[in-house]
Amino acid sequence: MAQASEIDEYGFKRCPEEMRFIEENQEFFTKLTKQLMAWEALNSRTNPLFKSTMLKNFIRKGVPLNLRKQVWLKMSGCQRLIQQHPNLYEDLFRNQFQKEIVDSIKIDIPRTFPDNIYFDKYKVSLYNVLSAFASHNPVVSYCQGLNYIAGLILIVCAGDEEATFWLLKHLVENVSPEYHTKTMKGLKRDIEVVTELIKIRLPTVNEKMNELGLPWIVIMTKWFICLFAEVLPIETSLRVWDAIFSEGYKIIFRTSLAIVLILKDDIMKVEDINELAELFRNISKDVRFINSHEFMKFMFSLKLKRREIQVLRRNNANV
Asked: Looking at residue 269, what is its pLDDT?
C-alpha cells in the first residue's frame, strides 16, 4: 500500500477521503507512472513533441506536472503570442491601475488558496498578474474567481508571471468569453445550454432540481467562473484544464454534464434543498471525482458534438 502524504505535489492538503483513496488504490499510481514514462518517451523522440498525432490522447490521459506549463502554452497558442508580443506584459505596468480595482484584488489575494503551503510566495505575483490583466482588458477588468484561475496557473507555472498572464488571457477571452463581465452574458447562456443538455439526457433529474427549488445557475455559476477550480479535486481540475487548453470550450460542457451524470442517483435521493446543496459542495471530497483517471475516461465517453453546443448557444443567445 502507498503511504499517502498529507500534502499533494501542488501544496494542497489532502482531505481524508483522498488519503484513503490513495492508500487503497495502488493501481492509480501505477497508471500515473506509466503515463509519465510514456510522456518522457514521446518527448525524447526526434520529431518535436507537438507534432505527434498521439498528443491529443496523451493530453486526455493527463499531462505530468513538469510538462504542463510547456504543453498549456503550446496547445493554447500562447507561446506564439508571447513571441509576437514579447514586451506586452511588462509594458502593462507602465499604466496607472485603477484604485478601486486594485483594492478589490488586494482583498481577494489572502482568500486565494489560504491552506496551500506554497502559495505565500506567489501572492505578489498573483497581484501583478491580476492587475496587469485588469488594465489590459477593461471590459472584464477584475472579477472574483479570476484569482483562483490565475492562482492555480501560477502554481503550475512555478510563479512565471508572463506565462500565467497569457494563459489567463486565453482562458478568459477565448475559452470563456463574457463569463467574467458585469453582465455575465456568456456564462448565463452557457449554463442554459448545459441545462438544455440535462433536460434532454436526464429529464427526471432536471424535474427533481425544479421540485426542490435549486436552479442550475445557482449551482453552476461557481463551476463556470472558476472553470472548476475550487469545485473538483485539484488533480481532476488540472486534468480538465489539460483538455481545455488542448480542445477548447467544449470541455466545459463535457465536464458539467459528466458531474451531473455521476451525481444523478444521489440527486434523486435527496429530500430537501439543504441536502442537495451539501451534495454539490462535497464534490471535491467524493471518490468518484478524486479518481481523475476514471472521471476523465467517463467524461470523454459521453456523446457530445460541438455542433450540438453551437445550436443550443444560438438558441439561447438572448438569455
From this structure: 97
Q: Which residue has the cell 479518481?
A: 291
Residues 47-60 as b/e (b if ≥16 CB within 10 A, e otherwise) read eebeeeeebeebbb
Grid coordinates representing 172 are 478568459
Taking CA atoms, 296 is separated from 78, 149, 232, in Å, by 25, 20, 12
Successive 10-residue mean pLDDT values, the chain, 319 residues: 78 94 84 80 64 78 91 95 97 91 96 95 97 96 96 97 98 97 96 97 96 96 96 97 97 98 98 96 97 96 95 91
Give how far Cα 31 sits from Cα of 36, 305, 316, Å.
9, 29, 41
| 56, 246 Cβ separation under 8 angstroms | yes
Quote the pLDDT of residue 5: 87
Q: Which of 136, 137, 135, 171 is nearest to 151 (CA)?
A: 171
Residue 67 · residue 35 · CB < 8 Å: no
- Estimate to the nearest angstrom the gap between the alpha carbon of 106 and the chain centroid: 23
Residue 1 pLDDT: 46
For the record, the C-alpha cell of 105 comes out as: 484584488
Q: What is the pLDDT of residue 53?
A: 64
What pTM, to 2 d.p., does this model score? 0.94
Distance, first Cα to last Cα, the chain = 51
Which distant-in-sequence residues (6+ apart) come within 8 Å of 117 by Cβ? 7, 11, 13
> Rounded distance, CA 165 to CA 150, Å?
8
Q: Is-contact 268 295, C-beta < 8 A? A: no
Q: Specify burial of residue 212 (Cβ count, 10 A radius: 0-12, 13-18, 19+).
A: middle
Burial letters 86-110, b for 16+ CB under 10 A, else e: eebbeebeeeebeeebbebbeebbe
